[in-house]
Write a structure and sequence with these properties.
- The protein is of the alpha+beta class.
- It has 2 domains: 42 residues; 86 residues, Glutaredoxin.
- 45% of the residues lie in helices and 11% in strands.
- The protein is built from 6 helices and 4 strands; from the N terminus they run H-H-H-E-H-E-H-E-E-H.
- Strands 2-1-3-4 form a 4-stranded mixed beta sheet.
- Strand 3 and strand 4 form a beta hairpin.
- Helix 1 packs antiparallel against helix 2.
- The N and C termini lie far apart (58 Å).
């Protein structure tokens, strides 16, 4: 999970050291910060905490099945900004039940992100499709109105 972020840190350190050796302190700081930022974005830190699949499915919230290093998962997560915390995020590499749920709807493949919205699974949906379903708290069934 940490391979890509560590690679960014290593590359950033090497480039920054090279810039320092050339006497370019400003460029060294800039490259260091850029690569550090990329390391944070591609790290597991940029995702909400893992929720076990059984807990996520029972929560009544949208369920996002993802895995570390997936650029499409990262795109979805970043485009949802502050709303992402209103979904349950299941890391399929940590949860065999989550991986099985994804394989069941993706022709036997572990294609992520797979998002379950209102009981229907969507493989690699657009952020615009997911965003309206994210609201604070568990999903609540609509209150029936008395018809007189």
């Amino acid at each position: 999970m940490w391979m890509v972020p560590l690679a960014f840190v290593a590359c950033g350190t090497a480039i920054a050291a090279n810039q320092v050796a050339d006497g370019s302190m400003g460029a060294a700081v800039l490259f260091g910060l850029v690569f550090l930022g990329l390391a944070v974005v591609f790290s597991p830190l940029s995702f909400p905490r893992h929720t076990p699949a059984a807990v996520a499915q029972a929560s009544g919230r949208p369920v996002v099945y993802w895995r570390p290093g997936c650029q499409y998962c990262l795109r979805l997560r970043l485009s949802l900004l502050g709303r992402a915390r209103h979904a349950s995020w299941v890391n399929i590499w940590r949860d065999p039940d989550g991986a099985a749920a994804v394989r069941a709807v993706a022709d036997g493949n572990e294609t992520v992100p797979t998002v379950v919205l209102d009981g229907t699974a969507h493989v690699n949906p657009s952020p615009a499709m997911v965003r309206p379903h994210l609201r604070p708290g568990p999903a609540r069934p609509p209150v029936p109105r008395d018809v007189a």
